[in-house]
Design brief:
single chain, 259 residues, alpha/beta, Alpha/beta knot, seven-stranded parallel β-sheet, 11 helices
Length: 259
């Protein structure tokens, strides 16, 4: 197996990977992201995503040589590093010793289906919520996920882990303005709000070309977004809770979209 050996923490690639693991700015500037762990690297491999760099530890090389050999053929460059050095660049408490650096441009460019059904997330801040929503979206057959540019980074390592690889498979659209995006693609918008005067989501017949909008965990959708949506809908609640977790609300909205 052909690979290079890195032993210094001051190596430029080691510094780059550390930055990609921790910084949204670094990921955006370099248009790169990190996949860490055997399962998510294999998901990417199975979905035809090319690896710019494959990095593995001494122990991983001994334990997972067959998988590494498979991934090596999918990578432009391969590097072996010590376990201690891998732990320094890992984003997990118990690293498996395998990671891939990938280019955003290696992902398939998604196209909007004007008859499709989508979930849109405005200013969502919790990586775990984005990961959970993406898994539910894939499970229910949602056509894609639309994310406002000020939401948490979908290529954040925590998001990718929480999504279990679904964000590598689901059509993903990042936009500055969800309403303008919807209008330009001739999609009908349904703003999910906490408002007893809004239409009950259970009474809506969602036709093709629909987007359900979910807002920030603490503040919900922006007033401007609500005002410019085609419809305002609400999830009926009988108990004393005033609102639902964003991931739960999104899951209910997606279920109704597809029902």
């Amino acid at each position: 197996m052909d690979f290079k050996v890195i032993s210094s923490k001051d190596n430029s690639l080691i510094k780059l990977v550390s930055a990609l693991q921790t910084s949204t700015k670094a990921r955006k500037e370099n248009e790169l992201f990190v996949l860490e762990g055997l399962r998510i690297c294999d998901d990417a491999f199975q979905n035809g995503i090319r690896f710019d760099k494959l990095i593995f530890s001494d122990t991983a090389f001994e334990k997972n040589s067959n998988e590494i050999e498979k991934f090596k053929n999918n990578a432009q460059e391969c590097y072996k590093i010590t376990d201690a050095l891998f732990k320094k660049i890992s984003d997990t408490a118990s690293p498996q010793g395998i990671l891939a650096v990938c280019s955003v441009t290696s992902l398939n460019k998604a196209e909007i289906d004007k008859k499709g059904k989508y979930i849109a997330l405005e200013n969502l801040s919790d990586p775990s919520n984005l990961g959970a929503i993406s898994r539910t979206a894939e499970a229910l057959g949602i056509n894609g996920i639309i994310i406002s540019a000020d939401s948490c980074d979908p290529f954040n390592p925590k998001v990718l882990r929480a999504s279990m690889g679904t964000l590598l498979r689901m059509p993903l659209f990042i936009t500055e303005d969800i309403i303008e995006f919807a209008k330009s693609n001739e999609l009908t918008t349904y703003a999910c709000v906490v408002d007893s005067k809004a239409q009950k989501i259970t009474d809506i017949e969602f036709l093709g070309g629909s987007i359900a909008l979910i807002g920030n965990e603490a503040n919900g959708l922006r007033d401007k977004t609500i005002q410019n949506s085609d419809f305002k809908i609400t999830i009926p609640m009988i108990g004393k809770a005033e609102s639902l977790n964003a991931a739960v609300a999104a899951s209910i909205a997606m279920w109704e979209l597809m029902r």
